[in-house]
Structure formats: structure tokens, C-alpha cells
Amino acid sequence: MTSTGQYTTRYNFCTLSDYDYLHFGLSLFESLQEHASSFHLYYLCLDSKSYETLVEMSLDCLTPIFIGDLETDDPRLVAIKNAAPSREALIQENYWNKTANDKNARTIQYFWVLASYFSWYVLKTYDVDHIVYADSDIFFFDNCKNIFDEVEDHSIGLVSHRLTRWSETRVWGKGWASTTEKDTIPDSGFFNVGIVYFKNDEVGFKCVETWKDWLLDPNNEYYEDYGTIGDQRYLMLFIPLFGRDYVKVMESIGHLAPWNVQNHSYNSNSINWLGQEQSLIYYHFSNFAPDFSSMSYQPSPRHGNAFGLVNIHPFLRKVHDEYFLSLINSKEKLNENSFRNDSI
Asked: How far apart, in whole angstroms, are the C-alpha atoms of residue 110 and residue 85?
């Protein structure tokens, strides 16, 4: 394995969205500009409008890539659009649109195929020695170098959901094999797909390629137990299949999400996770709901946990307000008009 000195030159990230979610992706980009000494963001555009917009913006350190070009080169991407959606895709479709629309659920499922596919594509296509997949609703609050310092020379990097009921007792990777624990696994799995790291070495590339192949083939041998929530539960197979010496679970990286805010305590400038004081490196603002017309937001209507805590804890209010202001800035760049007033 190579030295982590490779990371002193450039940190490589990839993300994806359509135009309706582009302001989230632009805020991710803004946070990288502030918290990465040198980086590049590969952006998979899921419609022509998002691609044309990013091409026209011509942002330094960002490469837009059009999904249609990938679909032309690989007919498997087109074919998987017709696959039956996972259980979680149907649940999300019902939540968002209050229907059991199979077509819409298939679209959600297709988006989940693309995280693994695009990570693999960037490693295969571009001259990069690593890639970090980041959901477009990730926002950095501190130096992203901490991720690379934590992953060290490992080929694969994962983060847990930080659901206290099982994180408190689990020692990651010491002889555990997720294939034998399916009766005690949370529906969401142990690991979160919001941030996933792959080194472009033999093990890292094989892992992301295998993850991609699982998503392209719903008939794979692990689908029944690990394909029920899109791409996410498959992450639990990385340690047993590729070896705990190659996989780093990044528990020292401070990170928050709506499903775990209640499992942390807070000081004015830091978070505390299971007795460990940590700087907040990033927040996964899943289901963050801004209302630009009223200059307000809901922290996470679907997950719910963040509602009261944002009002109780000044630290959480501060980071949510900062994210909302970034989204306003990103939205203005796209719409060329101002939403600002004195509300926030």
C-alpha cells in the first residue's frame, strides 16, 4: 500500500444529482472549497439541464459528466431501469408522493445504482489514486483531510450510522461476519452510504467494481438479505469479503445526520460521541427541506429526530443555519435572483 502522503496534492470526490437537487450539490462544492486545501469534484448530472448548467458555470475543480453518455456506453445502465425496485425505494416513493407508483420507485432505485457505478467509473476513467463518494446533501464543516488521515493506507473506508443501540457494543471487524448476523441487523444496515472511500489499488477497485455489479444484477446471491435498501446494506459485506485489514471504519471522524443527532452531546464548537470529543467534519443533511419563499427550513421531516434538538442545542442550530445560508447562495446562483431578507 502507498503512503498517505499522496493525499497532500489533491482530494478526489464524486457526487450526483439532477437539476432539482443541484443547489445541494453546489453547497457540497462550496464546503469543499472552504475545507479542502486542494480537491476535485466529479459530478454526475442526471439530466441535461444540470449538465448544461455546470458546463456553463465552468467551475474550477469540478468536472460535470452527463448520465446519457454513460448509458450510451453501457447498456446495462439502461436495462437496470426496468428492474423491480427494492423495498426501501417503494417506501420512499410512498413517503414522498403518497402513492405506490412503481415507475417512480424504479427511478429512486436507479439513482441508488449510480453511487457505486459512478465511483467505479471515475476510478476507471480518470487518473486518480482514490475517490470518495459523497451524497450531494453532505456538507463539510472542517478539514476533509481528516478523512484521509483516518483511512491511512486502507483500501476502503466506511462510516457507521452511529445508532447507539448497536454501535456501543460492536468492535468493528474483529472476526465479525455480517452474513451470519442478518437477524440482528438494523433495516438501514450498519454503514452509511453518504461517504464511502475507495483507493485505486487492487482491493479498492475490486470492491467498488463488485458493489457496482451487485447493483446492476438484482439476482445476485446477496440480494435477498442485502438488496432491500438500495445500495446501502451491501456495505456490510465489504469487511467479510475483502478482509478487515483493508477496510477502515472511520469512527474518529465526527459526523452527524438526522438519524443520530440524539445520540450525541454538544459543546459550543464540538460534538461528543460515546465519550469521545470530536470536531464536526461533515453533516449528512438527508431530507433537509428548505423553503426559500418563507426563508425557513425543516431539518428533516422524514427522519424527525432533528426537529426539537435543533431548537434546544445552539450548536445544532448554528450548523443548520449555516447550511441553509449556503443553500440560499447556491439557489441564487442558479436562479439569478435574491431570496434574502432579515429572517436568518
From this structure: 8
Q: Quick check: helix, strand or coil at residue 191?
A: strand
Q: Which of 115, 163, 138, 160 is nearest to 282 (CA)?
A: 138
DSSP string, 194-263: EEEEEESSHHHHHHHHHHHHHHH-TTSTTHHHHSTTTTSGGGGGHHHHH-TTTEEE-TTSEEE-TTTGGG
Q: What is the pTM of this model?
A: 0.90
Q: Residue 325 CB: number of other CB atoms within 10 A?
A: 13
Q: What pLDDT is attached to residue 109? A: 80
Our measurement of the distance from residue 252's CA atom to the centroid of its chain's CA atoms, rounded to an integer in Å, reads 18
Q: Phi, psi (5° rounding) for residue 266? A: -135, 140
Tell me which residues of the chain have a pLDDT lower than 70: 1-8, 85-104, 165-185, 304-305, 307, 336-344
Question: What is the full DSSP assignment across 155-174?
Answer: SEEEEE---HHHHTT--TTS
Task: Produce one character per residue of 123-149: b if its CB has 16 or more CB atoms within 10 Å, e if not.
Answer: beeeebebbbbbbbbbbbbbbbbbbbe
Cβ–Cβ under 8 Å, residues 166 and 190: yes
Model pLDDT for residues 235-264, shown as the tens digit of each residue: 999 998 999 899 999 999 999 999 999 999
Amino acid at site 257: A
What angle, rounded to 10 degrees, do the helices at 314-335 and 22-35 form? Answer: 120
Rounded Cα–Cα distance for residues 242 and 180 (Å): 16
SS3 percent helix, strand, coil of the chain, rounded to 5, is 45, 20, 35
* Three-class DSSP category at 59: coil
Q: Which residues of 62-82 are buried (b: 16+ CB within 10 A; e: fewer)?
A: bebbbbeebeeeeeebeebee
In this prediction, residue 215 carries a pLDDT of 94
Residue 76 in grid coordinates:
446495462
DSSP 85: P
